[in-house]
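User: Teach me something about this protein's shape.
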Amino acid sequence: GVLDYLSIHHYEDPDRFAQGPRQYEEFFREIGELIEKSANPNLKIYVSEWNAQSTDWRTGLYCGGLLNAFERCGDILEIGGPALFLRHVSATAWDNAFINFDQSSWFPAPNYVVMKLWRDHYAPERLAVSGETGPLNVSATRRPADGAIIVKVVNPKGEKVALEMAVPTSASATAQVVAPGDLDARNTLAEPSRVKPEKLAVRVDGGKVLAEMPALSAGVIVVTTAK
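Assistant: First, the predicted structure itself:
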């Protein structure tokens, strides 16, 4: 028979939150080239387990970078399934779950927080990104229902980075960012919203969207234009 999906797993060292997504993306492309030359060129990649081994903010930065890589590789990568999904807090040996709970409550790890922000702003039409992105990990998509442009950005650097994007002059923009300010930041049962999205200041001036991505941040900018 013919295979439909090639299932691969990868768990990253959380200290590699910046370069890990980039290198895994290169691996996807290498696999894609092999598939293209194979007897089954329609084979797609299914990343059936992925995560960074942590529940501190490093895993949120890794998550955003890798989800952007998934989106950029949409021609060869069809499904991404994260792990660990659920963990009771008494299970201390495998502390990287998206949802962490005890008998009465739960908290989202940073990877959950970022994945939810990305999913809430999903748009199916991927846009080409040109120009110099520097240290930023960027993916742009378009929402066909209203033409909104969704730009998902990760700044893995320890200092803020100015962001400037060319857009139609009739555009307006809003933004949200997760930027707890510390790689050690984490949510807990006692403080389940320590790591969460906040409003990010963004403005449109002369056909450009201008914002400052805080240090160690992951955010989404929504650009809308007049009909």
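Now, about its shape. The chain has a mean pLDDT of 94. The chain has three helices and 15 strands. If you'd like, I can walk through any region in more detail.
User: That's plenty for now, thanks!
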